[in-house]
Amino acid sequence: MADRMQRALPIMPKEPGSRNLALFTEEEVEARRPILLAGVDQYNSGYFFEAHETWEELWLRSPWPFRQFLQGLIQVAAAFVHLMRHEYPGTIRLLDEGLAKLDGASMTMGVDAKRFLAEVRGAREELGGLGPQCFEEWDQAQIPRIHLTDEAR
Q1: How far from 3 is each of 9, 12, 151, CA to CA, in Å?
Q2: What angle do the packed helices 33-44 and 66-84 form, to 10 degrees?
Q3: Global pTM?
Q4: Residue range 80-90, pLDDT digits in tens
Q5: Does residue 101 contact residue 93 with C-beta atoms inside 8 Å?
Q6: pLDDT at 18 over 80
Q7: Which residue from 74, 76, 75 is spatially nearest to 35, judged by alpha carbons?
Q8: Cα–Cα dist 95/76, whole Å
Q9: DSSP 83-106
Q10: Beta partners for 148?
Q11: How many CA atoms lie within 13 A of 46 on its CB side?
Q12: Do 107 and 69 form a contact (C-beta atoms < 8 A)?
């Protein structure tokens, strides 16, 4: 049976996708700082989904440890997309995952990661304390903003 299934399904050559491309060098990452900053502007303007998409373009080819930091930003942005959609489980799960990736970030390209981490952690605690029945009462003006260090200005 397995033999017959293998013959019935032709093996299609895969086209190289974005996940198969070589990782950027540190210089190439630095040259793409405007992408990071565009995502920061989108995020700070409340365009969380757009920020997520912008950063994902950079994340796909970034090396560690910057890749982990970007994934943390992406997950936090996605958490606030879930918040806007009134989806408590996704909000909390993605905040937790984003916090885990942002904690101890070493390559942040000028993002004040410590401040952002502390503010996201505070938002997570408040939302978690409200629970699924009352989380929509949380003041969305409290969504943490991303600040830059002097390095990025």
Answers
A1: 10, 17, 60
A2: 20
A3: 0.86
A4: 999 999 999 99
A5: no
A6: no
A7: 74
A8: 5
A9: HHTT-HHHHHHHHHHHHHHHTT--
A10: 111
A11: 5
A12: yes
